[in-house]
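Intended use. Records like the one below are meant for learning the mapping from a protein sequence to its folded structure. Do not use them to infer anything beyond what is encoded.
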Amino acid sequence: MAKITTWAPENEEFWESKGKKIANKNLMISVFALILAFCVWQLWSVTAVRLNDVGFEFTQNQLFTLAALPGLTGATMRLIYVFLPSLLGGKKTTLLTTGVLLIPAIGIGIAVQNPETSFLMMAILAALCGLGGGNLASSTGTLSPYFPKAKKGTANGINVGIGNLGVSVVQLVAPLIIGVGFIGAYTGGAQIMADGTELYIQNAAFIWVIPIIASFLITLFLMDEVPSIKPSISTQLQVLKMKHMWVMTWLYVMCFGSFIGFAAAFPLLIRAEFPEINVMSFAFLGALVGASIRPFGGWLSDKVGSGAKVTFWTIIVMILATFSVIVFLNLENFFGFLASFLVLFGCAGIANGSTFRMVPFIFEEKHAVPVLGLIAAIAAYGAFFIPKLFGWSLDTTGDADLALYLFIGFYVISLVICWFFYTRKNANITC
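Structure written out for the chain above:
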């Protein structure tokens, strides 16, 4: 592969004749790597549901903790990963962040086969899944130089939107693959449930090993490193002094934090509130809806000319949907609960797209990339706090209502913030 020495995506002739093809190729490589990162990051959201079925004896709060820990470490890793493209370059960063996914994938595959594995060891492995959670921050910085300004929003929407589908992929594939004996025979044998059913829980982790290796090799041989101005870490950290950096962080916590936190907690929440329901038949739907609709949030913002307006009205629907979840929980109506939660997931996905679209209109180009990386990093803490809040609410009150009322309060505050800074008549910024 010839080394790229000149890169001028803003030059229309260069872009049409050469740049677009190279950029789109690297976009596809990035998407594949990011899907796998999200799969590993949210592996515990489905694995934790089945542990006690095969001999583990973890409490409900411990299971929610296992689902939450990847969120804590993933968000923290994002705060580190956001600077890696500037230090290592995009290709080396992608190789590193993809290769380390093998550590939790292999470790979990071994650990879940032994019911004597301690909670501490499981917690360490859950925390290591956060290595997958960090990838979005570095992926955004890696991809941005490939595209002209007018195309960056679409490219980021495709990369992040399809990458987020990894949550749904793992929640759909893992429950199916743990019942496949011909794979399980090669990965350690069966675990036996109380009713005599054979499960191969290790398959849920081991199934990602070959795709991870494939993604690493594809990156190694096919991904390009384009010459670009790489801002210093000190330059990137300047955005921390900007007021709107923190305003947008709050709003992105509201939407992406909700999406990834609900995705991590959803299977366990269904299991806790509706034990008669086959969790795995429905758990993947939330993440599927939220991730699939994200690009629509950016498109709709372009259509109406304001990401802030889309975000504002979406928050209103999120408040109403959360109230609806509470109502159907108390009515013990699963399908009403499911429909309400899917609306909540969908709105979070739309707002993910609309808030990301707001950033380039608020910040200069040199600041937009670090802002996107940092708000994505901080918002990822939702993957820790939301499952922990659900676990605490269930342990304290016996149901999830208290946690849901707290989310409503948070959404109301978010609505006021969005209105005050960006959508009221005399707002200083139009975005």
